[in-house]
Every structure is written in C-alpha cells, then in structure tokens.
Specification:
By secondary structure, this protein is α/β, with parallel strands linked by helices. It is 23% helix and 26% strand. Strands 1, 2, 3, 4, 5, 13, 14 and 15 form an 8-stranded mixed sheet that branches.
Length: 425
C-alpha cells in the first residue's frame, strides 16, 4: 500500500478521505469533530515522525496531514510544541480489585480508570491477577465497567495471583484455562505464570499447553530459580517465539552475570523470538541491572509498569515515569514511544491498536517532553539523573477527551457558557 509523502497516509485512505470531504462539502457540514493542530506526531507503525495535524471524526482517526484547516472541524486544539502519539498501552498491570481475601494481589490492585488516562494510557493489560475460576467476576465487575480498554493475561492458577494459588499444581488446569480464554476471546490475550517457588516446571508447562491449545502467548514472571529451573532452560528450551519474559531488568534470575555481562541466555532468547518486557513493579527494576544491560545493547521490546498499590507510590509511579527512565538510559524517544504503543499491540496480537491509521479508534496521547534536572528511582530507591521527563497533557479515548491537564481543550471561564444548575437536595 503506497504512502503519500506529504501527509503519511495510504493512497487508499487518502482517496476515501477526499471522497468524504467532497460529500461533506456538498452537504455544507464540518467533516471532523476535532483537529489536533501543530503537534509533533510519532506513529511508529506508519513511520510518521514530524509535525502534523490529526483529525478525529465519529470516534475514529479520520486524517493525518501537514495542515488541516480549522474550519473543517467543530473543535480545534493547538498542540504546538507537544508530541501526539497513539494512546499508550500498559501491557503489565494489576486491576482486578478485590478486598477481604488475604494473600490475593487483588487487594493491592488499582481501578483502571483511576490511574490510566492521567498518564496517557488508553489500554491496560492485566497480568494474571485472575485465573479461570474467578475471571468471570473480574470481567463483570471491572473489565466491562471500565472506560479504559482492559484486556488480560489469564493466570494458569485457577484463582489467579495468591500466595497459595500460584503454587497449587492441582489447580493449574490448561484445559479449563483454554476454555475460559476461548469464551472471553475478545479480552483475554494470553496466559500468565508467576511466583512459583519450587525447582520444577509445572506452571510454565501448563501455561504453554494452554497457549498451544489456543494459539496465544504466555507471559512469564519467572519466580524462583533452582538447579533445574534456570533462566537458560526457560529462554532456550521452554518459551516459544512471541512468548514474553517480564521483569527483564530485575536481576533476580541471573539476567546479569557476576562480571556485569548480560547472561548469554537473554541474547539467545531474543534470537529465538522471545519478547522482553520491563514490568517495573515494586521489586523488579534496578539501575545496576538496567544500565549495563542497555549499555551492552539489550533494549526492552516492551515498556510496562507492573502497576499495583505497592509500585505506584514507590519508584515506579506511572507509565510515563517508566518511559522517562528509558530516556534516561539513552533510548531514543521514537523507540520509547514504539515500545509503549505499536510494540505491545503486536505482542498481545491486537494489530488494530497502537497506531493512528485513518479508521482506527481514536485513542491518542498528547505528551509534553519537559527538560530540566530530574531524578528517577528504581525499585530499591536508588536515584538516576535525567534531563527529560514525559507528562500527559491530553488523553483521548475513542474520540472523547478523558484527561486535560492544563485545559487545552477547554474554554476560558470568562467566555464559558455557564448554565444555572439545580441545587442538590
């Protein structure tokens, strides 16, 4: 499909857009609901990295061009000096909030809408908080009620992430997990294992069995290693191309050797097509692992937070803070955006997400790149300096503005059309 050099859209999409504009001209109406004007668009899928206008209509991306007249939109927002990207995808979060059940990660989960939009995130992927026994409850209470798009990796343990459940081999049922994934194929994107603490492989083997049965990837939080259960065996003998190794800079599983060299198994896993995810969390990202790994050229494939109550108020903070840490490590901004948009969309096999194609759902993040003197903490509380920090100015979900930090889309109070409101009774 050809790409027009002027505005970065396909010839087919351009013909469609021109036809739509002609029809609108005949009808005498404005074709677009909203135009973001003058921002620096970074859309890795379409290899756009420059100043463009972005038009939205009917909740979809309608057009990207160097200039779209303001008269063609009902609302225009000046985003000069800001970056316009696809809505961010946080591929590793915990948002199945449960209370009163001791030992469940659900007790420290976060409601998605309370945290997503303020950091430019429009899609969250829960990483195994629920298993096949309680996924229906997770869907009914959280996923289906959230404005944030919530997808999920299903835990191979029947009750999900609990101190007992993830070590109960009797409850690791690949047939039940596969059946649940098929029943919820619109939201389940793969399977998850985590925290298994014995020197055996039932968690990984059962998750892989469910993955083979459904054609879905497996995300592994490796838990504890042992004489049999080694990083080498996992990355060179167990996981398949497209499976995901999360917490890649944790250092808990010999990702870095004693001489500060990256474990050769990490390179071998990458050659085999295994994907490596940051998964920062409260105890899974350390500068003394990440700095030498990146210096040796081992970048992550995907940036994610491992969001939960224990990480959001500690070193992790939010998606943009983790992305800013990648900038501090020397990873270029365009790559950081790709690792947070199109790369996770591919990893979870949802190619309709993570880009600004005309016709795609209008999930958009408008980001400010601040320059100054900043400090970024790892999971141990150690500080690394940085001179750039990303901040979400505006987040658009399905064409609607859901976060507006400085009122870019708002009318000034002096001209705002206030209307009398009835007093609450």
């Amino acid at each position: 499909m050809g790409i027009h050099p002027r505005d970065g859209v396909s010839r087919k999409s351009r013909r469609t857009t021109l036809a739509g504009l002609l029809a609108v001209a005949v009808l005498g109406a404005q074709p677009y609901d909203l135009v973001l004007q003058g921002g620096h668009v970074i859309d890795p899928k379409n290899q756009i990295d420059g100043v463009r206008d972005v038009a939205i209509a009917g909740g979809k991306i309608a057009r990207i061009a160097e200039r779209i007249p303001a008269s063609e939109a009902r609302q225009r927002i000046n985003v000069q000096g800001l970056y316009v990207t696809p809505g961010l995808i946080d591929m590793h979060v915990h948002v199945y909030l449960i209370t009163g059940q001791k030992g469940l990660v659900g007790e420290v989960s976060v409601l998605p809408d309370a945290f997503s939009f303020r950091s430019g995130v429009t899609t969250m992927v829960d990483a195994g908080t629920a298993g096949w026994r309680n996924f229906g409850d997770f869907r009914q209470r959280i996923i289906d009620r959230a404005r944030t798009r919530v997808l999920a990796f299903l835990n191979i343990g029947g009750v999900g992430m609990s101190s007992e459940g993830e070590n109960d081999v009797r409850d690791m049922d690949p047939e039940q997990a596969a059946r649940t994934a098929r029943a919820h194929r619109d939201v389940i994107v793969g399977f998850k294992v985590a925290h298994y603490d014995k020197d055996e492989w039932p968690d990984v083997d059962n998750a892989l069995a469910a993955g083979r049965a459904t054609g879905l990837p497996v995300m592994v939080d490796f838990g504890w290693t042992g004489q049999q259960r080694t990083l080498e065996t996992l990355l060179t003998g167990k996981l398949r191309p497209g499976d995901i190794y999360t917490h890649c800079y944790s250092g808990h599983r010999a990702e870095l050797l004693a001489d500060n060299r990256l474990n050769p198994a990490m390179w071998e896993g990458r050659k085999r097509g295994i994907l490596f995810d940051v998964g920062h969390g409260a105890a899974s990202f350390y500068w003394n692992i990440a700095v030498p790994a990146v210096e040796q050229g081992f970048y992550p494939d995907v940036i994610s937070t491992d969001l939960h109550g224990g990480s959001m108020n500690a070193g992790m903070k939010d998606m943009l803070n983790v992305m800013s840490k990648m900038l501090a490590l020397g990873i270029p901004l365009a790559d950081v955006i790709r690792m947070s948009t199109w790369a996770p969309a591919q990893a979870i096999r949802r190619p309709e997400l993570g880009h600004l194609d005309p016709g795609a759902v209008a999930d958009v993040a408008v980001l400010r790149l601040e320059r100054g003197s900043f400090g970024f903490l790892d999971a141990a509380g150690a500080r690394h300096p940085g001179d750039r920090r990303l901040v979400a100015e505006l987040t658009i979900r399905g064409g609607s503005i859901v976060w507006d930090l400085n009122g870019l889309a708002a009318a000034d109070w002096k001209t705002f059309p206030y209307r009398p409101r009835q007093r609450p009774k």
